[in-house]
Design goal:
This protein is of the alpha+beta class. The protein has a single domain, classed as Alpha-Beta Plaits (2-Layer Sandwich), CATH 3.30.70. Helix content is 44%, strand content 29%. The protein has a four-stranded antiparallel beta sheet, covered by helices on one side. A hairpin with a 4-residue loop joins strand 2 and strand 3. The protein starts with a helix and ends with a strand. The protein binds copper (II) ion. Copper (II) ion binds next to helix 2.
Length: 96
């Protein structure tokens, strides 16, 4: 009985933390060629309120954005941020 209760409680804890967790979004970006491009995109994302961290990989042409806990960023905002910085988005994927 006790182990069942513990199992139920940990299940509740897991689902609660999932709801409040941050989200990781990876965007494939076209047009980045140098370190200045990287800095420009990073700067643009740091101005977005829901963004906790951003990492741009020039080699893989991927922009990885981590949101703050419990916040999310929709595809339209990600795309707009990248386009406004002067680049094109070819795909977006996300994970928790
Ligand atoms: Cu550049």
């Amino acid at each position: 009985m006790r182990s069942i209760l513990i199992a139920v409680f940990s299940l509740i804890a897991v689902s609660a933390s999932t709801a409040a967790r941050a989200e990781t979004i990876v965007a494939n970006v076209n047009g980045m060629v140098c370190a200045m491009c990287v800095t420009g995109i990073e700067k643009s994302f740091r101005k977005v309120q829901a963004v906790d961290a951003v990492k741009v990989d020039l080699e893989t042409k991927k922009v990885t954005v981590r949101t703050k806990d419990g916040q999310s960023l929709d595809d339209a905002t990600v795309t707009k941020t990248i386009i406004n910085a002067g680049y094109a988005v070819t795909g977006i994927s996300r994970s928790r």
